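User: Second chain of the day. Same drill as before.
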Amino acid sequence: MILTLSILLAVAIDFWLGEPRNTYHPLVMFGKWASAIEMRLLNNEQSVFRQRVSGFLAVAIVLIPCLLWLRLVPSWPPLQTTIDVLVLYFCIAARSLQQHALAVHSALSDSDLPLARQQVGKIVSRQTEAMTEADVRRATIESVLENGADAVFAPLFWFVVLGPFGALLYRFSNTLDAMWGYKNQRYLYFGWAAARFDDLLNWLPARLTALSYALLGNTTQAIKSWRTQAHLLDSPNAGPVMTAGGGALQLQLGGPACYHGQLKQKPWFGGPQLPENGDIKRACKLMYRTLLLWLIVIGAGDALA
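Assistant: Same format as last time:
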């Protein structure tokens, strides 16, 4: 039951402390290391092929040294267990995601739209200056659903499969995708390898998350939305997660949004109901109920192993 105990301790620490301050967060230090490699390898004057090769090399150069240290840890069980717990704690962010979402909820409840825009801007990549209250609600709920998969369930999945190495591999690759996966002039080809690697690691966890959302909400609507709408979204992994999550909550999500100064006509998806302020809390509850379900399934599997 060491696996289950390590996961429970990591989740408990996350719920108690939330994320570490950015200055000391390993992902912040990793991001600085990745930026340094990017400065040396990214050259938009190169051919498409060479930019893709440079992007592939950048992913390898950035990831390998960051993961090798796990292989150097002495095989002393108390130390290994401690590292397991700390690594998983640093890789998940359920409490932080909930806190950010509730900060938006609080601002909306106080009818402070400027503050709500500011708070939601911390968890979404779209521009928030012109958002309406309805836009803010949808963006917050979408972020809880998608980041629940990216920052909670996928690292937990890979921790179960490959231990702390798997959790770190996933979170680091996800960070590289967030840095280099943009389809703009700078990263379109250089970021190709990072985006595809993240898609690969996310494929199965995303669908398990979508299935979990469906089981814990309005299952019929969730499955219908997933089956008929997931392909409308750009991301092959966010599509199932957000459509199933929106259907589970019976909420209409998506719609036009502004990114980098351009209005993007995103599709509508999910259920029939327009989100209200309280639905932000419902999305957070769905994420935590899903986490509880995963802990029960992992614990049962660990006990039978």
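The chain has one domain: 2-304.

User: Great, on to the next one.
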